[in-house]
Design brief:
Number of strands: 18
Order of helices and strands: HEEEEHEHHEEEHEHHEHEEEEEEEE
CATH class of the largest domain: Alpha Beta
Shape: globular
Number of domains: 2
CATH superfamily of the largest domain: Zn peptidases
CATH topology of the largest domain: Aminopeptidase
Structural class: alpha/beta
Number of helices: 8
Bound molecules: zinc ion
Oligomer: single chain
Length: 346
């Protein structure tokens, strides 16, 4: 017995923190967070049908002084996982005794969809097209309202972490409003293949209706925000995660939150605009170009066949560009995506 007791005492410190030990909270009360601490909480968003709280994991690292407040939000689309691992690795590495400012890191903001391997929310809505949400709206609107009011209002800077959708692959690329000096700097600190200039602000119509993205919502609030696309859905990609980590650590160094030299990444390809090229018939599509490949106008990009293998169509690049993303699922009906073509300037 005695030996068993000693063994348990020795083993427990290595088992880690059980989830039961982490309390859930109604609000993120930053005033209550002690300086030089790293805290984990379950933040309540809504209730489920059993009147139980539906919560999301939030890690708060608070330095000696509370400013600036940097938000890292992963997986508003529930099948986009690489950002979750980026956050976990970054938080593990931070020494809260040496930290400055406040980090609010959310490894999985759309918890319900993550556990169901789904991109969309439980009501089939895209949470990232439903900002600002509605306090008394439908299911997705109320969830978005919680994100907007409980999280975005606390932030000075925001990094919005995504990947490609099901059936597609992405390079590591950043969407950012490059005319804004702060945002351009945030984008350049990423170890990205491509930086795509994308204004991010909602159209007048989107300002009236609740259809904007989280990035648009942040920017309307005056919070500098970039969206980072970390590769492919529903997988962990170690190389992408490592590069993602470098980019976020660079931002924290630049904001003087950590004392680490900025690891200057290679110059990305800068694109002023981009668009998808779609198929014009249904069938089996073979995309013959690679991610990040630079293409010339007229170059073959894909071949479409019917189920018997007969060629129905060949698709050619409409202008010089670079492959930002591409389809990985051969089966397509009319309007299926072929490649996401970036038009680069450098
Ligand atoms: Zn996404």
């Amino acid at each position: 017995m005695k030996l068993l007791h000693i063994l348990i005492v020795l083993i427990i410190p290595f088992v880690g923190i059980s989830q039961e030990a982490i309390e859930w909270q109604e609000e993120l009360d930053l005033e209550q967070i002690e300086p030089n601490t790293k805290q984990r909480i379950w933040l309540k968003m809504i209730d489920d049908g059993m009147s139980h709280p539906i919560t999301i994991p939030v890690i708060i690292v608070r330095g000696e002084k509370p400013e600036p407040v940097l938000g890292l939000v992963a997986a508003i689309h529930g099948n986009e996982l690489n950002g979750i691992k980026v956050i976990q690795e970054i938080v593990e590495e931070i020494d809260e005794k040496e930290f400055q400012g406040t980090l609010i890191a959310i490894p999985g903001i759309n918890g319900i969809s993550i556990t169901q391997h789904r991109r969309r929310y439980i009501d089939e809505e895209d949470l990232n097209r439903n900002f600002p949400g509605k306090e008394k709206g439908n299911r997705s609107q109320q969830y978005v309202w919680q994100i907007n009011n409980k999280i975005l209002t606390k932030l000075d800077y925001l990094i919005d972490m995504h990947t490609a959708s099901f059936g597609r692959e992405n390079s590591l690329y950043v969407r950012a409003a490059l005319q804004n000096d702060t945002i351009r700097q945030m984008a350049r600190l990423q170890d990205a293949d491509i930086v795509l200039n994308s204004n991010g602000l909602p159209s007048t119509n989107e300002q009236i209706t609740a259809t904007r993205t989280m990035r648009a919502e942040a920017m309307l609030k005056g919070i500098p925000c970039i969206t980072i696309e970390y590769g492919n859905p529903q997988v962990y990609q170690p190389e992408i995660i490592q590069r993602g980590r470098t980019g976020i650590e660079n931002i924290m160094s630049w904001l003087k939150m950590i004392d680490k030299e900025i690891d200057h990444p290679e110059e990305p390809v800068i694109c002023q605009k981009s668009y998808w090229i779609y198929v014009e018939e249904g069938g089996y599509l073979e995309v013959v170009v690679d991610l990040k490949q630079k293409l010339k106008k007229g170059e073959l990009i894909a071949v479409m066949r019917n189920p018997f293998g007969d060629v129905l169509n060949r698709y050619y690049c409409p202008e010089d560009g670079i492959v930002i993303g591409k389809s990985s699922n051969p089966i397509n009906m009319n309007g299926g995506r072929i490649i996401h073509l970036g038009i680069y300037i450098n």
